[in-house]
Write a structure and sequence with these properties.
Blueprint (H helix, E strand, L loop, with lengths): L2 E4 L4 E3 L2 H10 L3 E4 L12 H7 L1 H11 L3 E7 L6 H8 L3 E2 L4 E8 L1 E5 L7 E5 L3 E5 L5 E5 L5 E7 L8 E2 L23
Antiparallel strand pairs: 1-2, 1-8, 3-9, 4-11, 5-12, 6-9, 6-11, 7-8, 7-10
Bound molecules: fe (ii) ion.
Length: about 180
């Protein structure tokens, strides 16, 4: 379940409605998805895409996405540091960044043009859609694990355009984790 952190205000949001409303106000879509049928942890990319086919089809129709794939990042992923170095610098894309988290966790930092940087910590079941042109960067949590469905409007895929602002250097990828927030029903 996603949480929001606004470091400048020392503000944290962990309740689903509050998180979704905060993101909607920033133009970022957030949904919670559950698979149409139970999915084994070792499910292949094909099985994962099949299990979420109805949700993916709806998103494709809404957003003009033409391809979907599954990205798998683990602590032993080759060249992990080089990969993270590309994610971690503030950038934007000419297409939406759409991710549905299957396993693991990570943080999207978003830098509104006229607002404070906020962090979206995402975990299993979270879908987020960051609109094209949004300044953002991404980092993994300490476990360095994420498995996610990605949707693309351009079959060529993920192209970052770096702002070179250096703003990203001022933020630590602090993951709160689901257990750090006060328990809720
Ligand atoms: Fe990005």
């Amino acid at each position: 379940m996603a949480t929001i952190r606004v470091p400048a205000d020392e503000r944290v949001l962990g309740e689903l409605q509050a998180v979704t409303a905060f993101l909607a106000a920033e133009g970022i879509e957030h949904e919670r998805w559950t698979p149409a049928r139970p999915l084994a942890p070792a499910a292949s990319a094909e099985e994962v895409l099949a299990a979420y086919e109805p949700e993916i089809a709806k998103l494709k129709a809404r957003g003009g996405y033409v391809t979907a794939d599954v990205i798998d990042v683990r602590p032993d992923t080759p060249n992990l540091e080089a990969l993270l170095a590309r994610f971690r610098r503030e950038h934007w894309h000419d297409e939406d960044e759409v991710r549905f988290i299957l396993e693991g966790s990570g943080i999207f930092f978003v830098h509104p043009r006229a607002g404070k940087v906020f962090a979206i910590e995402v975990g299993p079941g979270d879908l987020i859609r960051v609109p094209r042109g949004t300044w953002h960067w991404f980092d993994l949590c300490a476990e360095r694990r994420i498995r996610a469905i990605r949707l693309f409007q351009d079959p060529a895929g993920w192209t970052p355009r770096y702002t070179e602002s250096g703003v990203d250097a001022g933020f630590e990828p602090v993951c709160l984790g689901p257990t750090q927030l006060s328990p809720r029903a």
